[in-house]
Amino acid sequence: MKCIWFVLLVEVMSVVDSHRPLTNGGSYEVSLFSTKAKSIAEVIYMMCLPKVPDYVHATARPSNPSLPHKFNVTILEIKKLSFIVEIERVDQATGWDRMPITVDWFSYIGNGLVYQNLILWFPDATNRTTMNRNTASKYCIDNGGRLVDIVDKAMYDVVYNYCRQSIVFGSDGYVRIWLGSSYNPATDTVTQSNGKPGYHGD
Ligand SMILES: *[C@@H]1O[C@H](CO)[C@@H](O)[C@H](O)[C@H]1NC(C)=O
Ligand SMILES: *[C@@H]1O[C@H](CO)[C@@H](O)[C@H](O)[C@H]1NC(C)=O
User: Fold this and answer.
1) pLDDT above 60: residue 112
2) Of 4, 21, 98, 123, which one is least surrounded by beta carbons within 10 A?
3) Closest ligand 1 atom to Cα of 72
């Protein structure tokens, strides 16, 4: 059985030439206080990237794990040496005293396709390693995404065409792709990973 998988990420990206995405990640500590629930910080990659990443995902936590603070992170700007984030305290709608906050980040540079607010992305469209669904799902999560759910016909067409263009078919006329949705043959229903009905074909 041949399997190709793809991941889906939430952010905007531009298309570059490379077929093989370059992934990087790291942690960076900022010393930050805020009088309001939201604050801005700059996170430095602390490594050399060949170009501005197409996508950055980041989370933030108090460096001292015994502190109760919880933060949401929004990426405001992606630059060559750093990226700018908005850090919002979400356990309470208040500011916080100065403390070290660790930002864990992940970036990639590679080919993808934007559909609405999603990025469809094959980590490697030439790699035909056979994977079971759990391995494929874990691979996506490890790369900052998840297996894609196809919501309707319009999205199916976009995903299908992206697959046709991206996959290197070689001598095989077909590929198998893992999706986030599941199919129940007994009830003939497709369910997305969020529990809602999925696209079932026309
Ligand atoms: C923080 O992020 C979580 C997960 O994305 C979301 O459910 C929640 O609404 C966010 N909180 C705020 C205050 O934006
Ligand atoms: C294909 O992907 C698998 C799983 O990530 C990896 O172990 C393998 O080395 C890859 N093969 C090639 C030829 O890149």
Assistant:
1) yes
2) 98
3) 1
Count Cα atoms within 13 angstroms, Cβ side, for 179: 21
Pocket of ligand 2 (CB under 6 A): 127, 129, 139
pLDDT score of 142? 76
In the chain, ranges of CATH 2.60.40.2080 domains: 23-109
Q: Whose CA is nearest to atom 4 of ligand 1?
A: 72
- Start-end of H helices in 100-184: 133-142, 153-166
pLDDT value at residue 103: 98
Q: How far apart are CA 166 and CA 168, in angstroms?
A: 6
State the Cα torsion 63-24-137-199 to the nearest 10°. Answer: 110
Secondary structure of residue 93 in the 3-state scheme = coil
Q: Is 172 exposed, middle or buried (0-12, 13-18, 19+ CB in 10 A)?
A: exposed
Which secondary-structure segment (H or E) carries 89? strand 82-89
* 69 and 100 Cβ atoms separated by less than 8 Å: no
Report how far ligand 1's centroid is from the alpha carbon of 57 (Å).
15
**Confidence at residue 21, expressed as pLDDT on a 0 to 100 scale:** 56
- The class that CATH gives domain 23-109 is mainly beta
Average pLDDT over residues 11-30: 61
